[in-house]
Amino acid sequence: MNRRKIIAVLAITAGVALLATTATALSRGDDPVPPGQGAAVARSDVQRTIAAAQDRLRRLPSDADTWAQLGSAYVEQARITGDPAFYGKAQGALESSLRHRPEGNGLAHLGLGALANARHDFAAARDEAERARAVRPDTAEVYGVLADALTQLGAADEARAAVQRMLDLEPGVPAFTRAAYDFEQRGEVDSARQALTRALDASSSPTDTLFSRYQLGELAFDNGDLDEASTQYEQGLLIDPLDPALLQGRAKVAAARGNLDDALAAYAGLVARVPSPQYLHEYAVLLRGAGRTDDAARQFDLLAQQERLLAAAGSTDDLATSVAAADRGDPAAALAAAEREWARRQHPLVADALAWALHLAGRDAEALPYADRAAATGWRNATFAYHRGMILRALGRTAEAADALDSALRINPHFSLVDAPAARAALDGLR
User: Fold this and answer.
1) CATH 1.25.40.10 spans which residues of the chain?
2) What is the SS3 assignment for 293?
3) Where in the sequence is the signal peptide annotated (predicted)?
4) What is the pLDDT of residues 299-319, one digit of tens each?
5) What is the pLDDT of residues 43-89, one digit of tens each?
6) By C-alpha distance, which of 159, 166, 195 is closest to 348?
7) Helices 173-185 & 206-222, crossing angle to 10 degrees?
8) Interatomic CA distance for residues 352 and 221, integer angstroms
9) What is the pTM of this model?
10) Cα–Cα distance for residue pair 222/61, rounded to 1 Å
11) CB 195, CB 177: distance < 8 Å
12) How far out from the chain centre does Cα 54 lie?
């Protein structure tokens, strides 16, 4: 369990920003928001936005802005529900907007950029964001979509510039959380924490607060501070006891503390409600770590089904496919998927996945340069360090391997129920 979920998190941040724009444009102000419902409020907000847009389009079917707002709301609906069918609806609405206003339609290009990010087509997202920027150069959401795309394409410096522009225009939750991720990738953990704290302070809705609490919890967990992680997750759950992300955080903490039965029960409930690829994958790994290999295999099968549904909806995520194949014990599939993803983008997460797949295929000399590239950013990522350590061990570079494995366990001794014990065993053997 590690930061590979960041891709999904970035889509969430973009969705929050776009939903805020859409809801403001369409709100009639006659629906008070009940306090303390957290993610349920976000669901009702996007549903109201969709209903208001549909109602307006019945009266004004050629309204390009409303078609664009509807498309962006469908992107958010896909995120909330986990149903990729909304991607097709979003695409149709946004294309309708462009048909009615082919030129100067920054709102439609902004929505198409967010949709492309959600589908993991980051090159297309970058291009759509640039089209939106040409029309709306002073709109913060444009730079959020652009920063997400550039980050995942491995253009770290350009992404940082886009985040800075977003902060200059609108220093709110979407900008601060993106700044935190930029800091984290560079190993600047204290700066990342400060940015997330500013996001929490700037939160003006339950949805923003939940998101900020979750990100603070994730940062703490990934740096080995279980108490702080638990505090952040539990504070969020006081707002919404059913928030899936925060329940996932609570389950991770339970597993890390050795409360495996509680963690497994929590994940079982979570995937029953929200069968997202991330949660199915984490549950499968947890089951395997608990020795329940048949149950783990069933979850991996469900994960493969979800990946096929996403692919049918136009989403391509060979990074997730590679990681899942590696965890499932299929190195050939892991390597093929990682190579496809690397051909599209050179992000540190992809470099790490490719390094690990090459290692599993017995090609450690080829793997090491990719592991080195993942580590070169300075990101304090226990999984990166573990993979690099195991590759170095296979190459007979004992001292360097021990340093890398020791680093993984110092960063986060609970980074994986399966891999953390393997790191300890390998380190003991080297010593």
Assistant:
1) 1-170, 317-431
2) helix
3) 1-25
4) 999 999 999 988 888 888 999
5) 678 899 999 999 999 999 999 999 999 999 999 999 888 788 999 99
6) 159
7) 10
8) 20
9) 0.88
10) 48
11) yes
12) 30
